[in-house]
Amino acid sequence: MITLARARALLDQHLGANPALRNHSLATGAIMRALADRFGEPADDWEALGLLHDLDFEQTRDTPARHTLETVEWLRPEGVPEPYLQAIVAHNEATGAVRADRLAHALAAAESVTGLVMACAFVLPDRQIASVKVGSLRKRMKEKAFARNVSRETILECEKIGIPLDEFFALAIAAMAPLQETLIARTGPAFAAPVAPSAPPAPAAPAASGESGRSAGAPGAASTTGSTGS
What number does CATH give the domain 4-189? Predict the structure, then answer.
């Protein structure tokens, strides 16, 4: 498997010019690491998967069905195992790939919940991820106009891997909170989260955000009201 250091280098190489999408990948990696600990899986490997899942977004922004396929072509020579490559492909439903194992469901749920957590943090007075409550996330899940491009159905795939929704929310908050200074800069949010792959790119959201509005051409920028939108 690719080393975590190499995964970070590739993340910087391909997404370093897009801080919002890079931060979404960092958040996904943190949640994947927490899930690996939960299941007794290799934490570095799962975190690397989270870091790399959107690696080709800039190259495939105009061809959504190709998103993740370029990534796989880059990562296979790096020695990334096939189940990890398949999980990357399957997180983009535009490819037609089916999520059929725990790793794929974990990645899809992890990268989707990042946007909901961020959207909730953005509307808090202190904008602290650690201040987000599980109950607030549960409530916002039911409000379709809030971070409207966040796929609630994909977040619920946590239950397919045996983790109740509230436990998954708590795990995501705890995993993302240490990244506070990176994900929410003093000048405002610098974060992107996944959006429906079939949607066209949308302009950057002004301030508050959640899974999915877009920011500076990322798969989606967190937006409390949502916007169109990996």
Answer: 1.10.3210
* CA–CA separation, 68 and 74 (whole Å): 10
Q: Does 61 have pLDDT greater than 70? A: yes
Residue where the block lists tokens 């959107």: 54
Distance CA 169, CA 183 (A): 17
pLDDT digits (tens, 9 = 90+) for 68-81: 888 999 999 999 99
pTM of the prediction? 0.82
E-state strands within the chain: 184-185, 188-189
CA distance 80 to 14: 17
Q: Domain residues of the chain, as ranges?
A: 4-189
- Structure confidence at residue 175 (pLDDT): 98
Residue with tokens 């079939």: 198
